[in-house]
Amino acid sequence: MVHTSVPVSRTPTRQRIVNTALELFASQGITETTTRQIADFAKVNEVTLFRHFGNKHGLLLAVLQECLQKYLVLAQVGESLMVSDISSQGDLRRFLKYYIQNSLRALESVPELVRSLVGEAGQYPHESRQALAQGINQVNQTIANAIHEVLIKSRLPYPVPAIKVANLLNTCILGYAVITLTSDVQAVWSDRDEFVNTLVDMFVQEVMPMAQAHPIMDIGADTVREIMLQAKKFSVRDYAIAYLLFASGLTARDITKLRLSDYQHQGNHGILCVTGSHGNKRSVPLNQKILGHRYGSASNNPLSAYLKMRHKNIGTTNISNNISNNQTTDLMFGGDDRKPLALEEIEQLWERWTMPYRNADGTPLKIDQARHTWCLEMLSRGMDLDSFGIISGVLPQELAIYQARLNEKIAINRAIALDATC
Prior knowledge:
Blueprint: H1 13-28, H2 35-42, H3 46-53, H4 56-83, H5 89-108, H6 111-120, H7 126-153, H8 162-182, H9 192-204, H10 207-213, H11 221-234, H12 236-248, H13 252-257, E1 263-266, E2 269-275, E3 281-286, E4 289-290, E5 293-294, H14 302-314, H15 343-354, H16 368-380, H17 385-392, H18 396-421
Antiparallel strand pairs: 1-2, 2-3, 4-5
């Protein structure tokens, strides 16, 4: 076999030895390659080789580190190319398939090296095995970072940490390569495409159970209108609370924490400052339209009507700036005793508004469905996922569930529209 050496004048001695060793190890295996051969092809004295690397195992370690470094560069380039335009579960599948296929090609390009590494692993000194393990961990971390970015950008939930996904993924890839290069792979897999597709399916399908565990059940426009009218019949306060549920997507817990100072006006819109469970705050616009029906304006809506009534009851002069030293008087929905409205009370209000209505499966409407309805309405109006995540407080891993439900609704409406034209 003829080997082409790199011109001596252009490559440093150490690098030239490493390049030559890699070529010989890859073409004829580690065992069959001697240090004398490497020195001859690299055009150096064998003593020079020993001075740089100590022995053959030291040289092998340098070769492996070189391979891992090149692989890291390849992975990072692939990461930048693939992660830049990620936006869906389909992109997660595309990213994984790209990475698996390129990893297998890289391993299969040096078959004798892989065979030798497997067959001679027990002969390596402890420091060589340890250094190799560190290199593999570095590769795993690089791929874990890429997977993490893909999941974030595609708004996908995933029950396993990215580093564990990367570790398992690379273990499967390496295992397949070893089987391919040391035995009859068709005894296990009919071809490489079958293996790649199966591995991709295994990882992608891990996303689905979480999505199925939290089904999104929204409420139809006609039923929402009826619920709002029912709430209006009971009291001004009921109407205001129902309005907040459907016009701003607040949870019952969010409503119990609201204070007068949390309601402000910006131009022609009302803005609510909502405090999350961890003390984090977000601003949410109060929509004047709910599923196509207008409920007043920024200054004249169910919430403003309630606040005017409350203003009269407590005798304050400026509701928007009423930040009392006695925090109990600042509650937006306090009871007669000025204590916060309890979650149980809001749920009881919901039950009396929604008593006549049921879901398609016959189950009672749940208060969380008001938030689901608002979320889907915001997305259906064309709001991008990043903006939606900011105002809604929906966790990144849950956004895809809402998007999937919206896509389902759009598909159903399109099918109905097609039927109507026939």
